[in-house]
Amino acid sequence: MSTAMNFGTKSFQPRPPDKGSFPLDHFGECKSFKEKFMKCLRDKNFENALCRNESKEYLMCRMQRQLMAPEPLEKLGFRDLMDEKPEAKDK
Amino acid sequence: MGGFWCRGWRSVALCGRCWRPPAWPGRSVESAERGLRRLGTWKRPSGARGPAAQPPRRPASSNPFQRAQEDEWRRRNKTVLTYVAAAAVGMLGASYAAVPLYRLYCQTTGLGGSAVAGHSSDQIENMVPVKDRIIKVTFNADVHASLQWNFRPQQTEIYVVPGETALAFYKAKNPTDKPIIGISTYNVVPFEAGQYFNKIQCFCFEEQRLNPQEEVDMPVFFYIDPEFAEDPRMVNVDLITLSYTFFEAKEGHKLPVPGYN
């Protein structure tokens, strides 16, 4: 929301999220996954690329507990992680 | 046929129209002349105007046929004028109505404001992270004065690259003894980078209820559009700040919802 003074400049337009809102995790069902993710972030100096496995697991926890609409993980941008898994299994 | 009438007069007196007055055998030339002079349509040979002469106007003629025809023309002129005036007023009204109509159009088609390409799930599936462009995303949490929640981010910053989905957490606690419903909105600075900041799922724009003494984790799942790396205006942008603000959801209060603001 821009202040009234900036008449000429473009103001920020908030956009709704693509898949809507996360239901609140009132019972803390996925809290352990979240803690793992946060620990990973703190260890890896807050680099997201190194903690993607943990974020994927958090989202899978949410999907299993009906706290998120189930979606194939490729659609959530985890395709590279999915490609790795079958390879790891083969090895 | 009006044999007493000079031909030149006739054409001039009747404003160039070839129209023959019906013969009035009783009249003399002089009285006719006087009559025409009175009506002011008779062009003097000298061309000068008389002292009390009006500018040449179409006279109300005494001939019933001509009068009827002139009435017809006048009526037609009036209708044409009415249509033109109505069209002008209609145009003015349309220009005023365009604003809410466009707003409605934007809301129904979802093209609200930004002209960025659609963020479909196909795009997320196929996007390739731009690994050489690291962006620092910092998080900010605000609460409206009337909302008694403790709301804060759980990480101060996170390093992402465009095209990579990322997860971040906020934490909210209701320290009071009664349930409170909050609703949040967000802001991204710099504003221009905000159009590349896409949230897949978050906790904004919907009412969130916290029971007394309850504490919850609120995740934000987002990504930065890979086209960010190709925008020349974003070359110097390395820091994006995501800021959430929670308000208390009260009856009748309307949060500015996304769309046409």
Automatic annotation (TrEMBL), chain A:
Biased composition (Polar residues): 1-12
Keyword Disulfide bond recorded: yes
Major location (coarse): cytoplasm
Residue segments, region Disordered: 1-20
One GO biological process term: mitochondrial respiratory chain complex IV assembly
Subcellular location: Cytoplasm
Pfam short name (any one): CHCH
Coiled coil: none
Segments forming domain CHCH: 30-64
Gene Ontology cellular component list: mitochondrial intermembrane space
Keyword Ribosomal protein: no
Family annotation (InterPro entries): CHCH, COX19, Cys_alpha_HP_mot_SF
Family: Belongs to the COX19 family.
Protein's name in the database: Cytochrome c oxidase assembly protein COX19
Organism lineage string: Eukaryota, Metazoa, Chordata, Craniata, Vertebrata
UniProtKB/TrEMBL annotation, chain B:
Domain of life: Eukaryota
Subcellular location: Mitochondrion inner membrane
Stretches that traverse the bilayer: 80-99
InterPro entries listed in its UniProt record: CtaG/Cox11_dom_sf, Cyt_c_oxidase_assmbl_CtaG
Region span, Disordered: 39-72
Topology term for the membrane: Single-pass membrane protein
Gene3D superfamilies: Ctag/Cox11
A Pfam family it matches: CtaG_Cox11
Keyword set includes Isomerase: no
Entry's Gene Ontology cellular component terms: mitochondrial inner membrane
A molecular function GO annotation: copper ion binding
Major subcellular location class: mitochondrion
PANTHER family associated with the record: CYTOCHROME C OXIDASE ASSEMBLY PROTEIN COX11, MITOCHONDRIAL-RELATED, CYTOCHROME C OXIDASE ASSEMBLY PROTEIN COX11-RELATED
Assembly and interaction partners: Interacts with CNNM4/ACDP4. Interacts with RANBP2.
Protein role: Exerts its effect at some terminal stage of cytochrome c oxidase synthesis, probably by being involved in the insertion of the copper B into subunit I.
Listed name of the protein: Cytochrome c oxidase assembly protein COX11, mitochondrial
